[in-house]
Amino acid sequence: MGKFLFIRVSVLDYDAKETKKNFPHLSQLAWSDDDKYIPASQSFGLLSLITSLSESLEFAKWTDEQKKLLADDIKELVALKGQVEKDVLDWKPQDANKLTFTIEEKLEELEKKQAEFSKNQ
């Protein structure tokens, strides 16, 4: 970092609106469409989805079957998110970038699981 130039490394959602479009079942689990209490400043990107899924796993009224089906994957996503954030803070953008692909693949797998679960309910 120079005297006048500032280098910033961060992880951001390219288009947070795509989250609900590409992960509708997970989004529904994380954020109810009719929830009047979601703050206007709430982000609806992938990183926020992971955080909200983790909170929902703990606090929402999911069935035991649903918790059992999704818990390990959600915990893994939380760990991956944490590693991406750590890599960014440690100025390791290449490592963080590799993990973003893993996160997206894991979310796609989890979306399929939840879609199948919803279909059978």
Explain this structure.
With 121 residues, this protein is mainly α. The protein has one domain. The protein is 66% helix and 0% strand. The protein contains five helices and no strands. Helix 2 (24-30) packs across helix 3 (46-59), helix 3 crosses helix 4 (64-89) and helix 4 packs antiparallel against helix 5. The longest helix has 27 residues, at 93-119. The model has no long low-confidence stretch (mean pLDDT 89).
Q: What count of helical segments does DSSP give?
A: 5
Beta-strand fraction estimate: under 5%
- Bulk shape: elongated
Portion of residues within helices: 55-70%
Q: What is the count of distinct domains?
A: 1
Mean pLDDT: 89
Helix and strand content put the structural class at mainly alpha
Radius of gyration: 16 Å
Runs in which pLDDT lies below 50 for 5 or more consecutive residues are none
N-to-C CA distance: 55 Å
Biggest beta sheet summary = none
Order of helices and strands: HHHHH
The total beta strand count reads 0
Question: Helices, strands, pairings?
Answer:
Blueprint: H1 17-22, H2 24-30, H3 46-59, H4 64-89, H5 93-119
